[in-house]
Write a structure and sequence with these properties.
The protein has 214 residues and is of the alpha/beta class. It has a single domain, classed as Spore Coat Polysaccharide Biosynthesis Protein SpsA, Chain A. The C terminus is likely disordered.
Length: 214
């Protein structure tokens, strides 16, 4: 049964990037800042497209036109969050609302985490589908929980009631051992996000692209 179960993906790309601009970032939103010649958000969406998750919905908000233009030719759905200024929770809610009724879970990727690898996302999907009664799966690196997270349909309703900048962390923290699947991950991508131009430079050094020397 699990093999035909469908997991979708949501890319949250609605934030205001205020820290990025305050630190000297020149792009309207950090999500369209280039890493190895490619907008950060496009790298995240391409990683999502390389996974088993379908469909993929990109939630836009601040800088909507620039973000949509960065992914315009990719096979994704778009959902606009008019309340993007209220924080991450509203974007998560918009993304979950856009999910088809038959999906059993949604992989939630953050548009400012460009080093996420598709194989890790697929490992989260497989681990989630393999565990009867699972409500979520998350990557764990050196004891730290990272992203992306996979939310099972059983958490959608509660996740859509979250407020402000609260992601699903609180919901996940309340799950018991049988409901939460942790997947060991060694790649730095699960905890690395771009908040400032310095982070962008670090992403370049960490191997933003395959042709990177390191």
């Amino acid at each position: 049964m699990a093999s035909c179960s469908r997991v979708a993906a949501i890319v949250l790309a609605a934030g205001q990037s205020s820290r990025f601009r305050a630190a000297g970032g020149t792009d309207l939103t950090k999500l369209v800042a280039k890493l190895d010649g490619k907008p950060i958000v496009r790298r995240v969406v391409e990683a999502a497209l390389a996974t088993k998750a379908r469909p993929i919905v990109v939630v836009t908000g601040y800088g909507r036109d620039s973000v949509e233009a960065a992914v315009a030719d990719l096979d994704v759905g778009l959902a606009f969050n008019p309340k993007f200024a209220s924080g991450l929770a509203s974007s998560l809610s918009v993304g979950l609302f856009a999910m088809p009724r038959d999906v059993v879970g949604a992989l939630v990727l953050l548009g400012d985490m460009p080093l996420i690898e598709a194989r890790l996302a697929d490992a989260l999907i497989e681990a989630f589908l393999a565990r009867e009664g699972a409500l979520a799966s998350i990557p764990l690196t050196e004891g730290r929980r990272g992203n992306p997270v996979l939310l099972g349909r059983g958490l959608f309703e509660a996740a859509m009631r979250l407020k402000g900048d609260e992601g699903a962390r609180k919901l996940i923290g309340a799950l018991n051992e049988g409901e939460l699947v942790e997947v060991e991950a060694s790649d730095i991508g699960v905890t690395f996000d771009v908040d400032t131009p310095e982070d962008l430079a670090a992403a370049q050094r960490l191997g933003g692209g395959e042709d990177s020397p390191h």
